[in-house]
Design goal:
Low-confidence stretches: none
Shape: globular
Mean pLDDT: 93
C-alpha cells in the first residue's frame, strides 16, 4: 500500500483524527490535485469540481481533528480515495 493510500485509509477509518500530521495532510491534498494558497497561518485549498473550500491551520505539528473530519467528508463525497 502506498503512503497516500495508507493516509487516506487512516483518515477514512476515523479512529485517529487528532493524530494526523499537518504536513502529511497538506501533501495528501496536493497529491489529490488541490491548489494551495497560504495567507498568514491559513493554508487554503481549492480544486475544480469540489465546491467546498478547505482551510487548514496547524495545531503544533498535527492537523486539527475537525479539519481531518472535513477532509474525510470531502474524500467520501467526491470519491477521491482511489483504491482504498
Amino acid at each position: 500500500m502506498r503512503k497516500y493510500d495508507k493516509l487516506v485509509f487512516q483518515i477514512l477509518r476515523g479512529m485517529s483524527d487528532a493524530n494526523i500530521a499537518f504536513t502529511d495532510l497538506v501533501n495528501l491534498l496536493k497529491h489529490l490535485g488541490f491548489d494551495m494558497r497560504i495567507k498568514g497561518s491559513h493554508h487554503v485549498f481549492r480544486k475544480g469540481g469540489v465546491i467546498e473550500k478547505v482551510n487548514l491551520q496547524k495545531e503544533g505539528n498535527k492537523a486539527k481533528s475537525y479539519q481531518v473530519r472535513q477532509i474525510r467528508n470531502i474524500i467520501v463525497k467526491y470519491k477521491l480515495g482511489g483504491n482504498v
